Amino acid sequence: MSMPDGNARVITFAQAINEALAEEMRRDERVFIIGEDVAEAGTPFKVLSGLVQEFGRDRVIDSPISEPGITGLSVGAAMTGMRPVVDIMFGDFITLTMDQIVNQAAKIHYMSGGKLKVPMVLRTTLGATRRSAAQHSQSLHAWLSHVPGLKVVVPSTPYDAKGLMKTAIRDDNPVAFFEDKLMFQDKGPVPEGEYTIPFGVADIKREGTDITLVATSSMVQVALKAAEMLAETGISAEVVDPRTTFPLDKERLIKSAIKTSRAIIIDEGYERYGVTAELASVIADGAFYYLDAPVKRMGAMDVPVPFSPVLEDLTVPTPETVTHMAKMLCGKL
Amino acid sequence: MSMPDGNARVITFAQAINEALAEEMRRDERVFIIGEDVAEAGTPFKVLSGLVQEFGRDRVIDSPISEPGITGLSVGAAMTGMRPVVDIMFGDFITLTMDQIVNQAAKIHYMSGGKLKVPMVLRTTLGATRRSAAQHSQSLHAWLSHVPGLKVVVPSTPYDAKGLMKTAIRDDNPVAFFEDKLMFQDKGPVPEGEYTIPFGVADIKREGTDITLVATSSMVQVALKAAEMLAETGISAEVVDPRTTFPLDKERLIKSAIKTSRAIIIDEGYERYGVTAELASVIADGAFYYLDAPVKRMGAMDVPVPFSPVLEDLTVPTPETVTHMAKMLCGKL
Amino acid sequence: MTSKIDPSNPHFTGVDREQWIHIYQQMLRIRLFEDTANELYRSAKMPGLTHMYSGQEAVAVGVCEALRPDDYITSTHRGHGHCLAKGAKPNIMFAELLGKAAGYCRGKGGSMHIADMDSGNLGANAIVGGSAGIATGAAMSAKMRGSSQIAACFFGEGALGQGLLYEVMNMAQLWQLPVLYVCENNLYNEYTHYSETTAGDLLKRPQAFGIHGEEVDGQDVRFVYTTALRLVEQVRTSQSPAFLQCNTYRFHGHHVGDIDRTYYRSKEEEAQWRTNRDPLTILSEWMMAQEIVDQALLADIGHEIEGETEAAVQFGLNAPYPDVSEVNQHVYA
Amino acid sequence: MTSKIDPSNPHFTGVDREQWIHIYQQMLRIRLFEDTANELYRSAKMPGLTHMYSGQEAVAVGVCEALRPDDYITSTHRGHGHCLAKGAKPNIMFAELLGKAAGYCRGKGGSMHIADMDSGNLGANAIVGGSAGIATGAAMSAKMRGSSQIAACFFGEGALGQGLLYEVMNMAQLWQLPVLYVCENNLYNEYTHYSETTAGDLLKRPQAFGIHGEEVDGQDVRFVYTTALRLVEQVRTSQSPAFLQCNTYRFHGHHVGDIDRTYYRSKEEEAQWRTNRDPLTILSEWMMAQEIVDQALLADIGHEIEGETEAAVQFGLNAPYPDVSEVNQHVYA
Ligand SMILES: Cc1ncc(C[n+]2csc(CCOP(=O)(O)OP(=O)(O)O)c2C)c(N)n1
Ligand SMILES: Cc1ncc(C[n+]2csc(CCOP(=O)(O)OP(=O)(O)O)c2C)c(N)n1
Ligand SMILES: [Mg+2]
Ligand SMILES: [Mg+2]
């Protein structure tokens, strides 16, 4: 379990992202931020507050409402010596950027036979239950995880967010970085000093022996709460956080499932053809001879996210639904 | 195994699509086609040849090179009483249409509480090995399969193509219809008369007892050839074609895997986070207690599609690689 | 009392007294609706956020009064004004804002997705510029069906950043589609002044495609209405697009939670607009001067609409939430 | 021989003899390259298809000769001319067209993806309009780095259909980025005349954003070159965008396989352009009239470049394919 040292400060997820960006912008003048309302407004979520004051409007650039355009500009800037961080306010808007990200950014290195590279970060959000309805609530990280040439980061704690963001900015490839909107105010220990977290290393967020809960981003806290509830009924759950969906730490996922013999995958993207499918099939394959029950998937319900709170809350896995599923798998229902 | 009657004509896949469109346009004057070079040119693949002559330029509409725009127009036309078929020349260009398809077309029915509907078909292509390189060779059907509100069709024979296209046009929902570019000249029996094929019904393309090959679109012929090769080594392979990735005929897939106790999923999309993941995890879950081996996945290699023939041919499953995998699973290697 | 419209002003002749009063009522209806919605937010009764239309009433009402009931509109995230102006009922709208089953979208859409086919409203849209294709497609559909309907597409000046708009304006002009683009320039894209996001002269953008464009004082409904009457007539009879830029101002924040605004606009600027440029005041003062109304009548109208609004919000508050079983209904038609 | 450039024509003064000869050589180099590529296709030696630049040589050469070696260009599916004009070597290009490891992209990109950072070529692009963001981003990067480089963005008139272009032109003007947009209007978008896809006057489109735009006869390299010299200087010194529309014609089909073209353009039209508007003839006749060259020198140049081209294609034909192990190299940097 990777952890900050004992006397680390406690800061929010948003502050951790902000700090990572500030540190990297201080370290490397090629890094700049571009997006809608990123400067004085510091984004609608206030994640970037203060950066324009330190780095100026030439490095924290307010753009028109042109997601395809700013993504395209970032690709061109990245190819020619800069290291842009492009801010796409809501994950739902990556729909507008898919050509530039998928056909351009992701492929240029390969198509050029390794000659050109596109070191850029696409920061965006995921997660529902904010009463924002169907066009502001999607978790579309499965799409980008599908695409060779991209790396995809789904941090779940302030500590991970900072270390992974720094790694993302230093990576020479296009990296999509998904932040859960509802996690921005969550607090956690984050050391002041410099650290990075490598991609492709899953983190055991809680150790256990009876069942593996593989959870991503927003669902890690759900899994941890479920693990607590399960502990009360005598089930010891291990919570594994892949932290990056690509590169994916298959080995650690499989190892945990082999140890516990049962696994549930929990992710906030739509369930069908989503992240849970990949992770479940990786485990079902790799741990085939050790599993005592089928690997179960818990994604977001396969419906456009409804506005009404009474409906929206039904669409996302909760500690209760995870606990229920885990008990069922362990034969304790 | 659904089949045309004995004395059906033999026509090409392209002709089957053309005939389906012509029949539906005759039957329902609300149906029209919009796309780049769809009229006199009949598309670069000549699939629509002759339609403009019969239906005129008001119903077979040559558009500017504006994929987002024509998709958006189609959504609006569909909401207000028309039934557009929008032609997106290469599947790679759906990247440009994702906002209109995913945030608009797919969600309007739900967001309006069931009041509005969007009966449109998005025709596009998939498939590599045409020496068209990374931006003209992708099979991105996994993305749309991920999205609630959309249906996704991946026909593998002229017979299926015609019947499924007619169903797609009559469906009151947005339907994405993926045609393999290399299959357009493939021939097969297609009855002259009117028929439709329901969505969500997998077709057993070949019966077998030892292993299930679930294959989609371009990969069905690959699986059938593999099945022939396997037959020679005494392995009886069943080839199951889901025909639509959503709705997905989970039951038939699982039933076949239970019967044979082994399954391989073959699809031309990128392997990771792709269609093979969903299908494999559906089977691994549903047939858990009957499987003698892990479900294996064979998607396209996780690389941008290379131009050079010597490289490109390595990226797609072939009868040989499928046969090899099947033998391994059956313990005959 | 006969109409006292200044006969020397060609703009306002031919509009009778009742019509001006009706226009005033509609604008007031919007103002009170928004004040009430704001109150719902402040008292934590409304889920999520909402974007208020206060200050811009003359645009929605001036344009929609010029439309036929069966003409189409598409709207934006700041959509309550358009909905009401086109004929939606406040009580059903409040129900929607509150996520209730009696709402226009059964509570599934919320503030940003109100659609009402009965009044020709194809929906608010939470994607900036996202409805430009829908409106243009509805106009195409109307033309194809020979219905003589037109479509009015409302969007903020921020939507000029979205490429989709240019794609569909090109097609609207090419194919002579009966669509009226209504650009509401309220000076801000969220927290950024439009001059920082928009190069050149706005009206030149439609004109670049050969589309007729005009600019009007969006605070003075007399100008908006009479200009819209003329343009709507022109669009309908000539079957060609037009573009109307309305210069206006939003009195509140970008959304109800945007309270501290001084970092992007001054309190003086706000006061100036509220005091001198309130569309309700401009109209009511003119109507008084013209003796179309007197203080007593204005007071009566005020009380009537206050009462109606109060009843409407009570209807919304008292209405039941949708049944949980609705969560996966209306995904498919 | 001293230069005989007509001193009464201000356009062509100040360019010396050697430069015109060099320009002629570059244009001929492109012409022979394309003829040879066509031959490769017809003799089935080249995988896939290619789009020939023949007829448009004056545009690529006229513009690229006005650029510095370290200036950037982005190109299109019809990109050989731009590559060669910016300094790429025919032998390495042929190797790429043939999918060989010695190619600019190690055979991974092919005809539509040639990129060569050494000559400032950020890549051909198989997405129409797809490089508009890249070029504009490269210009932004140049400005940020204070390098005084500029970027020239080549695209066909068909790319005016793509919204991305408008998004980035807006930003180029807003932020005063040193980018020259070069629109090659060769009259056709594939098989459709541009007048059927393009409303209004092309030049008004950049002008709508306040971008300086000019139109030039794209068959006469004297005009293209001298205009480009002036615009490039202006873009570089004023650090602001400009737009150059070059009216031109492609002599061959849309791609090498587009043989029967009479359904979209007449043989007379083609003959007319080939006979009267060949950029090579226009330049050579003028150079002869001006006594810059004589028949003998032209013949020498012809032989020299024929020999070079023949050697180049032989290099490509003899070069080995990439090793199969390269298939999954260069996916990530
Ligand atoms: C494609 C897209 N990008 C960004 C946003 C976030 N956003 C919501 S409203 C808004 C500003 C819109 O400005 P404008 O179009 O002028 O409308 P106004 O809010 O002024 O009415 C932004 C950026 C969005 N909803 N959609
Ligand atoms: C986004 C996109 N849509 C469609 C195509 C297919 N396509 C390739 S070239 C072309 C026509 C391009 O016309 P133009 O831009 O004028 O360039 P030209 O071929 O005349 O050089 C089309 C439609 C594509 N490559 N990319
Ligand atoms: Mg605005
Ligand atoms: Mg062209």
What percentage of amino acids of chain A are in beta strands?
Answer: 15-25%
- Secondary-structure element order of chain A, as H and E? EHEHEHEHHEHEHEEEEHEEHEHEHH
Query: What's the overall average pLDDT of chain C, rounded?
Result: 96
Instruction: Give the largest interface pair and sizes.
Output: A-B, 50 and 50 residues
Q: What is the CATH T-level topology of the largest domain in chain A?
A: Rossmann fold
CATH architecture of the largest domain in chain A: 3-Layer(aba) Sandwich
CATH superfamily of the largest domain in chain A: Thiamin diphosphate (ThDP)-binding fold, Pyr/PP domains
Characterization of this structure:
The complex is a heterotetramer, with two copies of chain A (333 residues) and two copies of chain C (333 residues). By secondary structure, chain A is of the alpha/beta class. Chain A has twelve helices and 14 strands. Chain A folds into two domains: 184 residues, Thiamin diphosphate (ThDP)-binding fold, Pyr/PP domains (Rossmann fold, 3-Layer(aba) Sandwich), CATH 3.40.50.970; 127 residues, 3-Layer(aba) Sandwich (Rossmann fold). In chain C, the strands form two sheets. Chain C has a five-stranded parallel sheet with strand order 1-2-3-7-6, with helices on both faces. Chain C has a two-stranded antiparallel ribbon with strand order 4-5. Chain C has one domain: Thiamin diphosphate (ThDP)-binding fold, Pyr/PP domains (Rossmann fold, 3-Layer(aba) Sandwich), CATH 3.40.50. Chain C is globular, with a radius of gyration of 19 Å. By secondary structure, chain C is α/β, with parallel strands linked by helices. Chain C is built from eleven helices and seven strands. The interface between A and B is large, with 50 and 50 residues. The site of one magnesium ion has 6 residues of chain D, from β4.
